[in-house]
Give the backbone structure.
Amino acid sequence: MAASQIFWIQEISECYNVIKKLGQGSYGKVLQAQNKLTGEPVAVKLMKKDRTLLKTFLKELSLSISLSDHPHIIKTYPIFIGTMDHYALTQELATAGTLHHIIQSEVGIPEDAVKRCAKQISLALDYMHGRGLVHRDLKPDNVLLMDKDCYQIKLSDFGLTQPMGNYVSSMSHIIPYMSPELCDLKGGEYLILSPTIDIWAFGVLLFVVLTGFFPWIEATESDTMYQVYINWRQSADFTSPPFCWQMLSREAIYMFDNLFAQCPFSRQSVLSIFNYLNFPWKIKVFEY
């Protein structure tokens, strides 16, 4: 943080012309703004002080800055801003929004765009894993688009990122991107953090953007969709696939098998998707 510029101000409008709100959550909000000094368009992430410890903000800020040299990770500027009510970090503006916003329910996005996303996200995750970091919050909301056709996308949001080998506890709620070993954690239990949870989340993300469906709601025994998938993959090959898997090619199913291996350490690297880029991932399903 020594090389960062530090600004303590009353209101964010002292440094930026606020154009519009891009998003909002329990942590705070993200604004599209213009730097008053340089005229540069930026995104400003405001984090509420009453919900965010200073050390938590500084950790996210420093991590985000350190990862900014990768072409598929959003650039975070070395600026520390504090207002009366918020901490703020400033990032390059993703002009086309998030990956979540372009996914059409039960359709997804075009396959060529999915493959462009797959390549870029896998390279960003591999870079993080190579530096001993696990993202822990991979989902379409945290993939930012520089253009609507996904020729340039950027991974973002490192608030949950931690080093490999750390102990992590159960989350307050289960989401579809969580791996089964995370879903199975009970109160007081811990998991040693490894890239395998990002690999699983990456598989779910690819499935969602390719099909427009979640493969399951949670990877647990109580989830019918998840159990149907497990039973299908453990049965003979002639068993009919679940509905939302019927549109996938044989090669795509093999790719997902490798990402969704039940044993975490049997999951292949995120870069394994490069082995399948020259094959079709979807097939036309004919109805009679």
